[in-house]
Write a structure and sequence with these properties.
2 strands; globular; 4% strand; single chain; two-stranded antiparallel sheet; 170 residues; mainly alpha
Amino acid sequence: MIYSIFSRFISTVGFIGYLPFAPGTFGALAAVVFIVILKPSIEGSALLHIALTVFFIIVGIVSSNHAVKFFEDRPIFFSFRTKKISDKKKDPSCIVIDEFAGYMASLLFLPLSWGYITAAFVLFRFFDILKPPPLRRLEDVFNDGFGIMADDIGAAVYTNLVLQLWRLLN
């Protein structure tokens, strides 16, 4: 019981995912706040930023796996929070740890200036919502927590590539 609550707490980023509108955007905004608070610690340490990002990805996969099983056991109560991807896979919209971890990954190896923090947020949400190829396919290829995380990590890679290119050209 406590483990179930803990995994839902993590996968919904402190229950932010239960907000009635734009839970993914608020999940990514939580990561913005997290980055801004930790900026003095991680700005000079790419290793710490990498470690935190990997930590959130792993914890996100594990907690999402448990949360998906919880939601599958309560289909009527949580059906309004769950979007069907296929007959066997679900991606509950209340799980927002993927947006949190994805946003963290989108800023890897970039300066943590307000310009990059803001641009990463806008681009990450753009790629996460639009899901250009092959991102949409990733959530179908992988199951449970890894599938939930995969498209957001892909959106983070797209975001980071665009910002790295921008940085290189300026």
